[in-house]
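Fold it.
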Amino acid sequence: MQEERKNLKRQNTSKMTTASINPHFETMIQHNGKIDSPYEDKQPSFRHRLFKHVSNAPSDRKYGIKIFHDPSDAVVDIVFVHGITGHREHTWSSSKHSRPWPETLLPSKIPEARIFSVGYDAAVLGWRSKISSNRIGDHSKNLLAALATHRDGDHSSDRPIIFVAHSLGGLVCEDALLSSKASPEEHLQKIINCTWGILFLGTPHSGSGFASAAGRLVPIIRPATRTNLQIVNVLRRDSEVLARIQHEFHSLLRSRSIEGCQPIKITCFYEEVPLTGIGEVVPKHSAIIPGYTAIGIHKDHKEMARFAIEDDPGFISVVGELHRWVKEIKSLQSKLDSGVVGELFLNKGHNPNMYNVVPTGINICGDVLQSNVVYGSQVINGGLTFRD
């Protein structure tokens, strides 16, 4: 009996100490005398979303591919990739609407696009639950495999791809493209060959202050949680993994021009409002890539990926970039189909939409089985550069 009293006293002291260090923590763990998950609200706060809760929902509702729009005449795949502590649907859902804007708003603006989101376990802290120990490299390889398998399965593997990535999701996309380029597998290589553009929303290309904030929070609550700080440490400004991804990704962008391939279009969006209780999560200098278009969204890091109405300035900016790129894809496909730039007979491992079309000739990446390249009414003899 005496020993039980001592144990109860130690437990009460531990709770009081934790709550005094972090007043928000008490509200996260106490409800009618029980320890609860901070995920009770429909739209949990950024602080609470650090946690992975015990959910009754099957895992297939959170991870893998979720189709939002799938027209029979799709000319492009638009792929949404969430960031740290994110969700394949909730990340893109405004508090005013239960459904994500890529499903409710985007299809009417770009009806010829197949739109889907990819989910993965990017939780940092697990509250009474198991938590993934996957790192950036694991998530990127899983993303690559999921996309390649899905597109190969429905015979759309030659369709152009546009990525829309929020926060850490941008780094996952970059690393996935690096893995695609280095892969000996043809179906995996097609992902980089078909990538037309990437919209980065608050991606920390050179690190984020979030890593330091999470690092300060974890020691306080570690006794009651399971943690995966591997994924957070990548966001530190001195991270070797982050430096490696950025160096190799920039090299990939340069090499495509040198090899005569279609350059990957890039637009970077950055937050203009600090996040309540956290501050500026990804500063502008980290969210942009020098030499590429940079556009501000007048929202905080979380809300910059959420739009409720078509008149939202952020939505207008994002859709404007997507619409412009899709228009370019359709224009090039039209020229190929009409014979203005001739007919290319390519092996099935390469995508004709990725090739540059210029009046003085054409640069082709991949193996050409037969070609009859015409500009106007003339057949070009020579002036072709073939590169593997």
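The first helix runs from residue 2 to 21.
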